[in-house]
Amino acid sequence: MFKKSTSNNRPPIVPVKTAINAFIASGYKSTSAAVSEIIDNSIEAEAKNIELIVFDELNNKGIKKIKKIVMVDDGIGMDENTLAKSLQFGNGSRLESRKSLGRFGIGLPNSSVSQCNRVDVYSWRNNKTLHTYLSVDEINKNDNQNINEIKENELPNEIKKEINSLGKNGTVVIWSDCARLDVAKAETLYNRITKDISRTYRYFLDKKNKKFKTINITYKIANSEYLKSFKPNDPMYLMENSTTPDYEKQAIMALRTKDDDNNEGNIEVKIQDPLTGKDVKANVTFRYSSIKPEIYNKERNATSKFMTHLKRNQGISFVRAGREIDFGTFEFFDPSQTTERWWGCEIMFDPILDEVFGVSNNKQGVKNMNYLDVTQKKDLDISDEEINESPKLLLRQEISKRFKKFKDSYQKKRNQILKDTPDKGNRAKTTFDEVVKGRKVVTNSKILGAGKSETQKTNEWKELIKKRAEAAGQSLTPKQIDDLIKDNKSLEVSIEKGSWEANQFFTIEVTGATAVIKVNTSHPFYEMMYKPLEESDDKKITEVLDLLLMSWARLEDELVVKDIEQKDFSKIRDRWGQHLLDTLDKLNKLN
Predict the structure, then answer these.
(1) Nearest Cα to 165, choosing from 44, 71, 69?
(2) Cβ atoms of 446 and 513 closer than 8 Å
C-alpha cells in the first residue's frame, strides 16, 4: 500500500548535487562573461572602482598558474540578509528590477561555479566585515541543501594589502581552485578578457559618457608591478578615448543616425509591461556609424593592428542598459567580406524589453533577433498578420529595414570615395618593379622608350592618366596629374584599364618606356572576378592577380625582342581570352 509522504521526508524538487553540477555544465561561454556578472553586481552596488587581482603560484613543473582571482569593488556593500541571498541560485535583491543590469538572481553563484570550485564573499559596511562561501566539493560530499552561515570575519591580509581602493564600504569576491578558466596564466588571462570586458562596459568606461555612470576597472597580478587599466573598446568607433590602435585619442567613425529621430534612431515598441500586464510603449535605439573618409583613404590598403582591431569588432552589438549583452552577425551581413569592417551598428534597449529580445538569464545573449526581410519571411513562412501581432517580429523587421537603408547609403559613399581617389599605384606594382629593375635584360619597352624624348614620355603618361580619370569620373588638379606621372613614369611594368569588344581580357602596350597591361573592363572575366576582388578591402588576392598579369607582361616584353613576334603573342592572348569566354558562358548557363 502506498505510504503518504510528509513534508519532512519529501525529496527536493532539484537535488543540490544535481543542480550544482548542472550549473557548472551549463556554464558561461568564457571567463570574461563570468567575470562580467561580478562587474554587473558592482555597478548595481554603485561602485566607482572595480579591481581584478590575480594570485598565481608555481606548480610542480615550475610554471606559474593562477591560484585565485579576487574581484573588489568600493560599492555600498551588503548587509547580512543580502549577503545570504547572494550565493543562492535563483534568489537575489533585484528579481523584480527592470531598471538596471541585474534581475535574474543567479549571477554570482552561477558565474562563479562555472570557473572555480570555491567562492568566498566578503562584504563590509562602516568597517564591519561579513563573510560567507560556497564550495562545490563540500556540496558534492555532504549533500547540504542550505547556505553556509554568515559570520563576521576580516578580509585576509594577503588580499587587503593588494587593494588600491579600500573604502568604508565594499565587497570582495574570491574564486579559488580555479579549475575551469579559459587560460592558466595571469598575463594571458588579461589579454584574453580585456577585449570583451572593454567592449561590454564601454559606456561605463567612457569618461565623456553622460548617460551611464562611469567606473574604473583595473587588472593586477598580486606581488608584482603588473597593473593594467581597462579602456573602452568601441565597435562603433565614436569614442575619443579607446583601445583603437594608432587612434586611441580620436573617433574614426561618424554617427550616421539621429537617436531621437523616429525614422532613423528611435523605434517605438508596443508591449505589455511584464510586471503590471498593462499596455505600454518602450523605446529601442538603432545606431549606425561608418568610417570617416580621411581614415578610410589612409588605412584601406594597410595590413596592421588597426585593421585587426576592426576585424574583431565586425558585428551588430546589442546593448542592454548600457552594457553589451550580445555581439555577432545575426545574418545581417557576411563577415568574410572585408568591406564590412568599415561600419558599426548597435541596438540599445532597456530591461523592460528583455522578453522581446529573448535575453538569457545569464545575460550572455539575445534570442531570435536575426535579419528579417521579404526573403526571410518567405523562407520562414511568416505572414504579415503574424508580424503585426508580434512585437518581436515587428521590431526585427524594422531593425532590418533600417540596417539595409544605412548600409546601402554607406556603400554608395564608399564607392564615391574610391571613385574620387586617384589611383597612385599599388604595392604589387612597386614590389614587382623593385624585382625586375635589378635584372639587366633588354626589353621591347626599353628599346621603344629609348627613341622618345623625356617630354614625349611625360605627355604619353599625361594623356593616359587624363583618360583614366575621365573614365572614372574624377577631376584631377595639375599637381595630382604631375604626382601620378611621377609615380608611374619610372615603372617597368604597370596596369591600366580600357574597354573594347574583343576576346582578349588584356593587351600590352608601351607608354613612355613602360610595358602597360590594359585590362578589358568589357570582358566578362572582369565583372565576375577582377572587379569584385578590386573593390574588396583585402588587397592580397588582387595583388596576386596583378602579379600574375605583370609577370606575363614582363615575359612578353623580354621575348618579343629576340624570340617571339608581337603578333604571335596577340594571337595567344586572343585564344586564351576566347577559352575564358566560352567557359564563363557555360558556367553562367549551369547556374
Answers:
(1) 71
(2) yes
For the chain, how big is the Rg over CA atoms in Å?
Answer: 32
Which grid cell sits at 161? 594589502
Cell, residue 424: 597612385
How is residue 302 written as a grid cell?
A: 594597410
Dihedral sign for Cα atoms in the order 375, 378, 384, 386 = negative
468 closest CA partner among 514, 423, 510:
423
pLDDT of 224: 94
Task: For residue 402, give the nearest of 452, 443, 361, 343 by alpha carbon.
Answer: 343
Count of beta carbons in the 10 Å neighbourhood of residue 485 = 19
Reply yes or no on whether the pLDDT at 96 is more than 80.
Answer: no
Q: What share of the chain is helix, strand, coil (3-state, %, to 5)?
A: 40, 20, 40
Q: Which of 81-90, 223-232, 503-512 has the lowest mean pLDDT?
A: 81-90
User: In angstroms, rounded to a whole number, what is the distance separating the alpha carbons of residues 108 and 120?
Assistant: 11
What per-residue string of b and e applies to 160-199 under the rule 16 or more CB within 10 Å gives b?
eebbeebbebbbbbbbbebebbbeebbbebbebbbebbbb
**Integer angstrom CA distances of residue 570 from 146, 468, 493, 552, 573:** 88, 23, 18, 12, 5
d(CA 393, CA 466): 53
